[in-house]
Design goal:
- 33% of the residues lie in helices and 26% in strands.
- With 363 residues, the chain is of the alpha+beta class.
- The strands form four sheets. The protein has a four-stranded antiparallel sheet with strand order 2-9-6-7, with no helix packed on it.
- Helix 2 packs across helix 3 (212-219), helix 6 (282-293) runs parallel beside helix 8 and helix 7 packs parallel to helix 10.
- The termini are far apart.
Amino acid sequence: MEHDGTNLTVTEAVRSVQLLKIDGYCATAAMEALEFIKSRWNIDGHEWEIRFYPDHWHFFEDEEMLFPFDDKLDHSEWVALKLILVSEPQRDKLRVNLSCRLVCPSQHLDPSQAKTVSHVFNRHSKCSPEVLLMLKHKLPSSGYIVNDSLTVECTITVLGDLDTADEPVPPPSDLRQHLGELLESQDGADVIFHVSGESFAAHKVILAARSLVFKAKFFGGMEETSSEHVVIEDMEAAVFKSMLHFIYTDMAPELDGELEPQAAVIMAQHLLAAADSRYGLNRLKLICECKLSGGIDIGTAATTLALAEQHHCSLLKAKCLEFVTKSPETLDAVLATDGYAHLVASCPLVLTELLRAACERKI
């Protein structure tokens, strides 16, 4: 939260400082990108959950922000934390600050630089942005892992009600809400997509602003420039609907708990393919890649590996190879799936890499 201090009165603030200690830290090496360790606190009459991610993927959306040591990477790996509001908020807005730093219990090492994030929690926003505490590859040599134990000092500050009688504070952006309502109402729509027996109305200018493919299709002299009806082939209606919702709102609720885990994985696979090869939605592709990397199991490993190979997702591919070759039992189980037969038929060249990974792990 930012404010210049004019006409702002903080009536009260409740602060809690606690230590989050992770013993047996070496075991976190087996955790996936979306897996976390949690700890619950009760502060200011609300129940909060601190989530500790030992392998958080932070994706770069701008090519100029690529990891300086390897321009082929599209993300960096961090030790990160998030704050979750578990209970229902007791007022419309909860203004909260989370500050984290690494500490050495023996005090032989000064605490690391504190990293903070502020967030306004309400009924519709119960998760803070992540606190990027330290790059994962720097942690082992930092000195903060002592006897295979890591300690994080977390400070949560909850502000009381604010008095802003003289000058109102602008509310947070509701652009995505209004664009979502525009999509749902179909007001002013100038194109209708026909997908697997269902129809979806949309606005050419919004599609063009979000996708260079749509821009070329509707404003680049192609057949669809003046067309009011477009037929989409080889795509399920539910997938197109989810992609359209993302274009308008920058959100994909189907990937964030709206669907059952298995259905969410399948949706992420279809969305990744559509975002990459058909519509050039790079952010959606990265979101799907991150979702799939945290949900690899026996049943999905081979099909996800094929998808990663076909759509040049090098990091997702590496995660799949790591999973498949982690033990002889896992490898045998994956080889027995229908997904592996699909992998052999569609991406035979990746089998060489799979064999090489298995040899390197000596399984």
